[in-house]
Write a structure and sequence with these properties.
By secondary structure, the protein is α/β, with parallel strands linked by helices. It has two domains: about 160 residues, Alpha-Beta Complex (Aspartate Aminotransferase, domain 1); about 250 residues, Type I PLP-dependent aspartate aminotransferase-like (Major domain) (Aspartate Aminotransferase, domain 2, 3-Layer(aba) Sandwich), CATH 3.40.640. It is about 35% helix and about 15% strand. The strands form four sheets. It has a seven-stranded mixed sheet with strand order 4-12-11-10-9-5-8, sandwiched between helices. The protein has a four-stranded mixed sheet with strand order 1-2-3-15. Strands 13-14-16 form a three-stranded antiparallel sheet, with helices on one face. A hairpin with a 5-residue loop joins strand 2 and strand 3. Helix 2 packs antiparallel against helix 10. The structure holds ligand KE4. Ligand KE4 binds next to helix 4.
């Protein structure tokens, strides 16, 4: 029995499912999780010291690679000054300044401790600012485990929502209106019928939670026009895409400025950080200067701010276009290898993210993503992991490349896929 197996056996007695976040349990691929003891550059290591090439990268934060020396050194230095003050500190001002300077739609920002806290707070702010209660989201988009966003398509009109999980009251998701991702027509139909009651549209500007599904041309621009027309706010959930798609996020990459932006992952450099920000006239409605209440004991934690700040400072020196080029080369080669095995393969690739779907038809929304053959994905996952490649254990997540991966890592990955017997 491996150390991971022993630890997982113990963990399942102490922690629900043995994990502190469900996807890590590897349930959807029918395997047990590896416990990770150490990570460096593009690699993670098991307690026995086995090395794996990592394409989970902590679900997105580690775009620089693990244990980047400048981030580590900044953290080590800050650690000697203390861990938490519960008071304003200089790193949080510096990180706020970097975010405001980087993102076109952000003039002011509030730090929180997770992406979920960011979207939850942004939703409350949008409702408080507009005085409206309804919110539009898109099926297949994940905005954290906020009650209002844990909605599934109900019966009847596509927009009726029902709770997607026990514990969420029906009346909470009754205010949540659903449309298919990339369907501007459905969004327009919702607004035509209920536009005056809608506080905001929440959207992943490039969806990363049904596997990667980029926006079709005109989708984001159409949402911008639609929300302006009805006085609703456009909220970009850039928890994944923020500082990932470009240093200016998806809003800079596509040239569509939202009213509010939700952030997480990369802005913490691997430490627990989320943030929400936007136009000053909206953000000034947040307590204590405004009346929309939101708070957090560890928000702006000096160590977390230091890690995020160091990460962004290094990212300013990095070549996003080159990483995008290298990612596309890797992903296209993976697709060709799989096609040469006679498999139906669709590739969605954007920036340093990609997802391979085992299906004949293009994947443009959640319904088409769900048509991907999950048995083939499980064999793909098991084949990769058996050869020390570490992809996300779900077809509805993204593979993340990083500035630490090198040609030898991509070649090792391609060789591993060539060896898989489906
Ligand atoms: P967190 O609360 O997990 O920090 O962020 C929630 C969130 C919000 N918005 C988007 C677009 C997100 O992708 C996420 C979280 N992403 C998942 C994986 N896609 C985190 C991994 C997990 O749940 O364990």
């Amino acid at each position: 029995m491996s150390i991971s197996q022993k630890l997982f056996h113990q963990a399942r007695e102490l922690i629900p499912g043995g994990v502190n976040s469900p996807v890590r349990a590897c349930g959807s691929v029918g395997m047990e999780p590896l416990f990770i003891s150490r990570a460096d550059g593009p690699y993670v290591y098991t307690p026995e010291g086995e090395e794996f090439i990592d394409y989970v990268m902590s679900w997105g934060p580690m775009i620089l690679g693990h244990n980047h020396p400048r981030v580590r050194d900044a953290l080590e230095k800050a650690l000697h000054n203390g861990i938490s003050f519960g008071a304003p500190c200089e790193p949080e001002v510096e990180l706020a300044r970097e975010i405001v300077q980087a993102l076109p739609g952000v003039d002011m920002v509030r730090m929180v401790n997770s992406g979920t806290e960011a979207t939850m707070s942004a939703l409350r702010l949008a409702r408080g600012y507009t005085g409206r209660d309804k919110v539009v989201k898109f099926t297949g988009c994940y905005h954290g485990h906020v009650d209002a966003f844990l909605a599934s398509a109900g019966s009847g009109a596509a927009t009726l929502s029902i709770p997607g999980t026990p514990g969420v009251p029906g009346e909470v998701v009754a205010q949540t209106l659903l449309a298919d991702y990339n369907s501007l027509e459905q969004a327009k139909d919702i607004f035509a019928r209920q536009g005056k009651e809608i506080a905001a549209v929440f959207v992943e500007p490039a969806a990363g939670n049904m596997g990667l599904v980029p926006p079709v041309p005109g989708f984001l621009e159409g949402l911008r026009t639609l929300t302006d027309e009805y006085g609703a706010l456009l909220v970009f959930d850039e928890v994944i895409t923020g500082f990932r798609l470009s240093y200016a996020g998806a809003q800079g990459y596509y040239g569509v400025p939202p009213d509010l932006t939700c952030l997480g992952k990369i802005i913490g450099g691997g430490m627990p950080v989320g943030a929400y920000g936007g136009k000053k006239e909206i953000m000034r409605r947040v307590a204590p200067v405004g009346e929309v209440y939101q708070a957090g004991t560890l928000s702006g934690n000096p160590l977390a701010m230091t890690a995020g700040l160091a990460t962004l400072q290094v990212l300013q020196e990095m070549d996003y276009a080159l990483l995008e080029k290298k990612t596309r080369e890797l992903a296209e080669s993976l697709k060709e290898i799989l096609k040469s095995k006679g498999l139906p393969v669709q590739l969605n690739c954007l920036g340093s993210m990609f997802t391979l779907f085992f299906t004949q038809e293009p994947v443009k929304d959640f319904a088409s993503a769900k048509k991907s053959d999950q048995n083939l994905f499980c064999r793909f996952y098991a084949g990769l992991r058996g050869q020390h490649i570490y992809p996300a254990p779900s077809n509805f997540e993204c593979a993340f490349n990083s500035f630490a991966h090198q040609e030898k890592d991509w070649e090792r990955t391609l060789d591993a896929v060539r060896q898989i017997r489906f």
